Amino acid sequence: MKIELHHEPTIFEALRPEWNTLVQNSGGNTPFSTWEFLATWWDVYGTGQLWLITARTDDGKLVGLMPMCLDDNRLLCSIGGLDVTDYCDVIVHRDHEVVVYNAFSDFLFSHRDDFSGISFYNLRPDAPTRTYFCDLFQAKGCQITQKQVEVTPHIMLPTTSDGYYDMLDKKQRGEIRRKIRRAEAGVEETIDWYVVGAEHDIHAHIQTFFDLMASSSPHKAQFLQNSQHRAFFQKLIPRMHEAGWLRLAFLRVDGTPCASYLNFDYDKRIWVYNSGFSYQYESLSTGIVLLVYLIEDAIARGYTVFDFLRGNETYKYRMGGVDAPLYQLDVVF
């Protein structure tokens, strides 16, 4: 097993042909581990010193990636940070987990004088990183701390829309159906929705999404006033679109966009990344109506999970979301 440490950002482009194949064969296969997401994050937010550690077999096959950076406080932490990356993980081929995690832990331990500690952010409950690194670093005498930092509500999708409604409690089921009926009967012309495809101008739709996102809450408006955040979205959305993983949906009332969801369509799951709506049509509950259409569409396409990602907003539970914990793993030598 060959372990190499890379500091130069050009390594992202060099690894691009191999990166996503490894992600898709790992236990941490999410859109947030893809080359498109992490390379974009480093392009926009990258600061401190890049610590991208690779593992290759003796015949040169890439079987491990540890995307980390050394911050100004000498803390080695996950690339992706905490603001815009819902899931982080070390990327290890599932057939090589034991040897790669052992090699990574040995490498980090041998470089322990180079940093004050390690933080692995936003780990899912089933993240192999939690299982392997806890045991391996404890065996080396390190201090390990695990703490729950967030929840990620999700819906395990049934095979039919009727099955979905049956999952909801009677009151919520009736409320959703009333909102759908009111919206569809409450306009003189039509209410329709669509997903941005190859036939659409992606950059024009990004601006429309920004407008709806900013109008939906002061917090989101403030988020978009940050030039780095806007630049990240402007680079990420076209890359995910080109990769075939973008599910940018709009609901229109009489032809006017009034609600939108920025989702990722990846690994037979929908990942609800961000959203926006106009208060002009608040009485029609356009955000909830579009969300219901998207859930029904995911079911019709045979998807298994509708992941609301981080945050415990009330609407996620009303739509049937069930919490999964999200962890941070800290290592002190």
The CATH architecture of the largest domain: 3-Layer(aba) Sandwich
- The assigned structural class equals alpha+beta
On the 0-100 scale, what is the average pLDDT?
A: 96
Q: Count the beta strands.
A: 14
Order of helices and strands: EHHEEEEHEHEEHHEHHHEEEHEHE
What global shape is seen? elongated
- The CATH homologous superfamily of the largest domain corresponds to Gcn5-related N-acetyltransferase (GNAT)
Summarize the biggest pleated sheet.
Answer: 8 strands, mixed
Percent of residues in β-strands: 25-35%
Radius of gyration: 21 Å
Output the CATH class name of the largest domain: Alpha Beta
Uncertain parts = none
Classify the fold: give the CATH topology of the largest domain.
Aminopeptidase
The N- and C-terminal alpha carbons lie at a distance of 24 Å
Helix content: 40-55%
Number of helices: 11
Number of domains: 2
Describe this entry's structure for a reader:
The chain has 333 residues and is of the alpha+beta class. It folds into two domains: 2-151 and 327-332, Gcn5-related N-acetyltransferase (GNAT) (Aminopeptidase), CATH 3.40.630; 154-307, Gcn5-related N-acetyltransferase (GNAT) (Aminopeptidase). The protein contains eleven helices and 14 strands. The protein has helices at 11-24, 35-45, 97-110, 128-139, 161-167, 170-185, 202-216, 218-225, 227-243, 286-300, 314-318; strands at 2-6, 49-56, 62-70, 75-78, 91-92, 117-123, 143-151, 154-156, 191-195, 246-253, 256-266, 269-277, 305-307, 325-332. The strands form two sheets. Strands 1, 2, 3, 4, 5, 6, 7 and 14 form an eight-stranded mixed beta sheet that branches. It has a six-stranded mixed beta sheet with strand order 8-13-12-11-10-9. Helix 3 crosses helix 4. The longest helix is centred in the last third of the chain and has 17 residues, at 227-243.
